[in-house]
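Minutes, structural biology subgroup

Action item carried over from last meeting: produce the structure token record for NADPH:adrenodoxin oxidoreductase, mitochondrial (Plasmodium fragile). EB confirmed the sequence was re-checked against the source entry. Recorded below for completeness.
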Amino acid sequence: MNLRKLFCSKTQRALVRGWCLEGKFSFTGKCFLTNEAKPFKVGIIGAGPSALYCCKHLLKHERVKVDIFEKLPNPYGLIRYGVAPDHINVKNTYRTFDPVFINPHYRFFGNVHVGVDLKMEELRNYYNCVIFCCGASEVSLPFVQKDEDNTLSGGEKQNGKQSGLFHARDLIYFYNNMYNDMRCRAVDNYLNSFENFNTSVIIGNGNVSLDIARILIKSPDDLNKTDISNDYLKVIKRHNIKHIYIVGRRGFWESSFTNAELRELISLENTKVILSKKNYDLCCLLKSEETNTNMKKRQHEIFEKMVKNYQEVEKNKELYKTHKIIEFIFYFEIKKIQHIDSAMKNVQFELNKNVPMSYSSFKENKVLETPLVIFATGFKKCNFTENLYNKSVQEYSQHIAKHKFGLFKAGWFDTGPKGNIATQILNSKNSTHLVLNFLNKVDNFFNNDISILLQQKKIPYVSFDDWNYLHEMEKQMGAQKNKIGQKFSQTGEVLRVLKDRMGKSQ
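Output recorded by EB:
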């Protein structure tokens, strides 16, 4: 039976020997019939939500020991570096994993890059199987201009001019204080190269666009109490963002916005969120029956409110001066970007080519003038880790067939960058059940310790106790500035702080 199809009904789930996803039929250990005194060892690559949920499920079984490897010095992945700083309650969901970290069968190895510091051949000699939970951190771009802006190179110079084109990841990593990220420095350098810009264009129809618009338009004083980057607050004070355009090539009926995020946006103080009546009408004309859900009906009401806001500010133009504006534009896509000077550029849009010719009355060319264009157009799996996984599957196919070594994947590395935390929980459960089914058939066990190998290779790894020490320091540094925390932003700084501790607490 294909375990991926066990989500259909309780009857089917009851057929699983000894375990059930809802927990009604608690795991009895029936699948581990031999060598009951010996532990199974599982390595997990990555320490984001999917990795930690996999770990949480695996550790329900006493015979399973789990080691997590993370190339950054800290766990939590997107919870720490993807969630917007003003979403403090969401960031605090990391406490969900406290039971994992106090389990004696779990170990964390931060600052260890699998594929660089540790080879898969080495992991094969220490673990029954390895789960790839590396997420999807590479950018996905729908648009490539053929002349001077062939790539989104952020602050890199194009024909002597800084481009000012960034992916959402670059800005998110910047305001979330991502370690050693050159793209963060590119954003910082670019925004420091001029003063007082007041417009920005964001491309994309998802919650990431809403997060970025909210963070850009909020007062630095409102953000100061969060764990947001001090460098971001410093540079954003040089500017006065008054008008943000959120442009999508589809309509709001097909968007992936959530209603909670949209409500938060239209509730911002001193801000008018608007949608033109003409653009709203186009969305309604192109509405498909598939979008006729209760959630989308409620979302429709939110966009109707934006139309009323638009009519209000058009009637009283003074509101454009007294309020900040976030304007949605649907069914338009980039045609060309032309530089005006070292900062400003004209972003030319045209009606989506997939809009039927019968709607030609809506056809127009829009030109938005801005120094900053953010592409919130999604992510894809990292080429390095995907190649590592595919190469390993091919190289160890014989071992996998004989249950001598297993390779699995979970989270966005498995499904691609889609879904919310609930879908990641479900995917992690599914993946760990496949792992348990595999462990039922193994007959080789390992007593060796990977930490000894890391010490021999002189790889300075960060244990979870080390991370706790760092986290307390971050909270103390934040408290001195009336913030909930102040993150370390340089790996070298972390290694100096932990110099006398590292490798001694596992």
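Discussion: Residues 1-31, 144-151 have pLDDT under 50 and may be disordered.
Next step: EB to file the record with the rest of the batch.
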